[in-house]
Design goal:
Blueprint (H helix, E strand, L loop, with lengths): L2 H20 L1 H12 L7 H4 L2 H7 L7 H18 L6 H20 L26 H15 L6 H38 L6 E6 L6 E8 L2 E8 L8 E5 L6 H4 L2 H9 L4 E6 L2 E12 L7 E11 L2 E6 L7 H12 L3
Antiparallel strand pairs: 1-2, 2-3, 3-4, 5-6, 6-7, 7-8
Helix pairs in contact: 1-2, 1-6, 1-7, 1-8, 2-6, 5-6, 7-8
Length: 333
């Protein structure tokens, strides 16, 4: 999830663990704990793009990391705060839950997380977008109200718990919404007599009303979307895989690593003399409605026998139009 959401979650967990003893400081340290796993982004400045992408949400988002770092960080903070009556065990408990709930929440997103690192098994339930106001804002409001209550009071505890219950309840609800959307999409494929081998559904940006789907239909990927407010049948757009044309490039080790990262959902295509690797898991963005492009794409180049990848993120110049298009689609077709 986004940084703000992880800060809010960490702060709420910190309050639940130590708020009765140390008040708002528990929120501050919980927020710090909830931020630490995402420090793996530093790898972008220390290594190549492919390696950094492999590392993202890897070791720092694992149970092992939480188990190892919690007592170390707990002991360190205890040395700084020796005057309090928390003890290193109390601090370790705060850090464990702050560190662990971060990847646990990330597991529900599209990117997922390697919670069971070092096993190469990425959990990605695809039921919530990385930024979802309905998850974060009620949670944040409850946390802010609790922060102004006197420490140790029942009302403070109840308000903080309310925020946790609301966010968790919404997260559970999104699982049911995903099931309903997935069922509707698979039924549409059946009605249109479309044969497929694999399907992936996920929420569109910042909501759980509109859902996107990737379908592996042999020579093509089909991409479609469904809003709970739709009145027309679901339509699917075909995107050729172009596997034959990219066969040689796809066999290279560096590209194979990208394919592994994207779990096989990719299209390699040549544009203006450059090879582009499209990761299909995060869908399309309609900066130009006539020519939407995939959100995650990499420009591949070879130098001295090694293939490098450079992120080619879409330039978000016309955000009003993008969000306007999204809002219109959420309202139904």
């Amino acid at each position: 999830m986004d940084s703000l959401t992880q800060v809010v979650l960490g702060a709420a967990v910190g309050e639940a663990v130590l708020g009765k003893k140390i008040g708002n400081r528990a929120m501050v340290w919980g927020a710090i704990a909830g931020t630490i796993p995402d420090l793996d982004v530093v790898a972008r400045f220390l290594t190549d793009t492919i390696t950094a992408t492999e590392m993202h949400r890897g070791f720092s988002h694992s149970i092992i990391f939480s188990v190892i770092m919690a007592p170390l960080l707990g002991w360190l903070v205890h040395q700084i705060k020796k005057r309090d009556d928390v003890g290193w065990q109390g601090w370790a408990k705060l850090f464990f839950w702050g560190l662990f709930t971060h990847p646990l929440l990330d597991a529900f997103t599209t990117w997922g997380t390697q919670l069971f690192w070092p096993f190469d098994w990425r959990l990605a339930f695809n039921n919530i977008f990385v930024i979802d106001p309905l998850y974060t804002l009620p949670f944040l409001v409850c946390l802010l109200i609790a922060a102004f209550k006197k420490k140790g009071t029942l009302s403070r505890k109840r308000i903080n718990h309310l925020g946790i219950y609301l966010s968790t309840g919404y997260l559970v609800l999104t699982l049911f919404l995903k099931w309903a959307a997935h069922t509707k999409i698979t039924k549409a494929l059946e009605e249109q007599q479309i044969t497929y081998s694999k399907i992936s559904t996920r929420p569109a940006p910042m909501n759980t009303i509109l859902w996107n789907a990737n379908i592996d239909a042999g020579e093509n990927y089909l991409i479609g979307d469904y809003s709970f407010f739709d009145s027309q049948p679901i339509t699917f757009t075909a995107y050729p895989k172009k596997r034959k044309a990219s066969e040689e490039l796809a066999s290279r080790d560096e590209v194979q690593r990208l394919i592994n990262i994207s779990e096989g959902w990719y299209i390699l295509e040549e544009e203006n003399g450059q090879w582009i690797y499209n990761d299909l898991r995060f869908g399309l963005i309609a900066i130009d409605p006539e020519h939407p492009q995939f959100v995650f794409r990499y420009v591949l180049a070879e130098k001295e026998g090694v293939i490098t990848a450079t992120e080619d993120r879409p330039e978000m110049e016309n955000t009003d139009a993008i969000f306007g298009t999204l809002w219109e689609r959420i309202k139904g077709n």
